[in-house]
């Protein structure tokens, strides 16, 4: 069964590239959004296995969106993966407080990396370790 992914990013170029990459690797991209409100609105119908959320959504924050997912019980934090072009070290403090399964640099985005995070087999320090 294909992994059902939802992607939240304010870059149309990245959304297209990520969707193409993940679908080529056997994932089903069941939705995309570029803003917090759009993501919340589309999430109910999409029923994804995982939500990839860019930490920087233009004038909005992906960290805030992850917190809203948790508060509003829209998505369990074990299914949220924060993504960004920023180095993980630059985001330690924010990642440590984020209700998310992990952080994945955009340059390492792949179906295998997502599955490893969801399965708990990715060898990484994760967002909760300083």
UniProtKB/TrEMBL annotation:
The species this protein was found in: Kribbella caucasensis
Record-linked Gene3D superfamilies: 3.40.50.2300
Name of this protein: Response regulator receiver domain-containing protein
Keyword RNA-binding belongs to the record: no
Gene Ontology terms describing biological process: phosphorelay signal transduction system
One matching Pfam family: Response_reg
Keyword Zinc-finger appears in the UniProt entry: no
Annotated keywords: Phosphoprotein
Segments forming a coiled coil: none
Residues where 4-aspartylphosphate is found: 54
Domain of life assignment: Bacteria
UniProt domain Response regulatory: residue ranges: 4-121
């Amino acid at each position: 069964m294909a992994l059902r992914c939802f992607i939240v990013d304010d870059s149309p170029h990245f959304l297209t590239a990520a969707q193409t990459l993940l679908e080529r690797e056997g994932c089903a991209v069941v939705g995309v959004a570029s803003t917090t409100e759009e993501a919340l609105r589309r999430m109910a119908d999409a029923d994804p296995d995982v939500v990839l959320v860019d930490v920087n959504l233009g004038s909005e924050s992906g960290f805030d969106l992850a917190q809203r997912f948790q508060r509003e019980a829209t998505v369990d934090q074990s299914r949220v993966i924060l993504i960004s072009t920023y180095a993980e070290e630059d985001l330690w403090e924010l990642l440590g407080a984020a209700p998310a399964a992990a952080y994945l640099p955009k340059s390492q985005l792949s179906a295998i990396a997502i599955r490893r995070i969801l399965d708990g087999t990715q060898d990484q320090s994760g967002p909760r370790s300083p």
